[in-house]
Amino acid sequence: MRMKDKLVMVTAAASGMGRAGVELFLAEGARVCAVDVDAAGLAALVRQLDAGDRLVTVEADLSTAGGARGSVDAAAEKLGGIDVLWAHAGAPGPGGIEDLDIDAWQRAVALNLQSATLAAGQVIGHMRKRGGGAIVFTASVSGMVGSMWAPVYSSCKFAVVGLTKSLAQTFAPDNVRVNVVCPGLADTPMKTGFTGRGVSAEVAAENEARMMTLVPMGRLVRPDEVAKAALWLASEDASFVTGIALPVDGGFTCR
Ligand SMILES: NC(=O)c1ccc[n+]([C@@H]2O[C@H](COP(=O)([O-])OP(=O)(O)OC[C@H]3O[C@@H](n4cnc5c(N)ncnc54)[C@H](O)[C@@H]3O)[C@@H](O)[C@H]2O)c1
After folding, report:
1. Which of 93, 157, 193, 208 is the most buried (most CB within 10 A)?
2. By CB neighbour count within 10 A (0-12 exposed, 13-18 middle, 19+ buried), where does 189 fall?
């Protein structure tokens, strides 16, 4: 068990890759706090995983400063500390930048970048108390190469990679490692926010198929494949790994 008795906080945990992470960290022996804005989704998670007091939840809107910071303190209180933070929350944001809706831009920055920054700033004190820890952020392949269709999202995710490389240096003396996973297009509800925005299901399927031609391994990423990468980065198996952006993308960013 690679996470025996570790205290782990996962955000955006009620669905998709975050949910897969909750399952995996539990299976590896951790106690987990699942954080999400979706109260019903969290309740369903608790029912379905049936992990007793090894799984606790915090309902929070991470796009607000209060939610991003407060959820860390609430998770630390419920778990009795935090060893690992997987700050996974994010969202596609607006498409083009002509006639950009500034509120939509700010919402995208708030959830993709501000929430990660504030959570890390809040968790470091809790990790110091435990003698160290590991932070894993979620960016995207769009944080490693530009995205023609999602410039706002891409610029936020590049910033999350910059945050990772900066905090890896800042927090190293605290024995806290900081890394980021960069998934390719993943088989989760969020996928339609990239390939299906404002188009019919048929066109969305065509967009997805076109994207898959750019993936050497030719398919979507499964949620558990990203969760496994996050778990590896958080575990002692990666004890000398800090500041890396790890693509989980079937080769999409190779070119
Ligand atoms: N799905 C993809 O194709 C893809 C690809 C690369 C990166 N990502 C990144 O992965 C992360 C999540 O993706 P997923 O595919 O697992 O998503 P998902 O759609 O399966 O789940 C997203 C979760 O986030 C929660 N959420 C939404 N807004 C929130 C808020 N304001 N506060 C708290 N929780 C909130 C939702 O309730 C939901 O449970 C994001 O950071 C996203 O940018 C996704």
Report:
1. 157
2. exposed
Query: Two tokens at 28?
Result: 């590896």
Q: Is 153 a catalytic residue?
A: yes
Could you tell me the distance, in angstroms and rounded to a whole number, from the CA of residue 86 to the centre of ligand 1?
A: 12
Q: Is the CB of 61 under 6 A from ligand 1?
A: yes
Between the CA of 35 and the centroid of ligand 1 the distance, in Å, is 12
Model pLDDT for residues 171-223, shown as the tens digit of each residue: 999 999 999 999 999 988 888 888 888 888 898 899 889 889 999 999 999 99
Report DSSP state, residue 89: -
152 lines ligand 1 (CB under 6 A): no
Residues 237, 150 share a domain: yes
Q: Point out the ligand 1 atom lying closest to the alpha carbon of residue 67.
A: 32
User: What total of structural domains would you count in the chain?
Assistant: 2
**How far is it between the farthest Cα atoms of the chain?**
52
* Cβ atoms of residues 70 and 59 within 8 Å: no
pTM of this structure: 0.97
**Same-domain pairing of 80 and 146:** yes
Q: Phi and psi of 181, rounded to 5°?
A: -95, 145
**pLDDT tens column, 60-80:** 999 999 999 999 999 999 999
Q: Where in the sequence is the domain holding 82, given as residue range(s)?
A: 7-184+223-246
CB of 19 within 6 A of ligand 1: the answer is no
Please tell me the distance between residue 230's alpha carbon and the centre of ligand 1 in angstroms. Answer: 15
> Which one of the listed residues 86, 137, 153, 194 is annotated catalytic?
153
Which residue is it, tokens 């975050």? 18
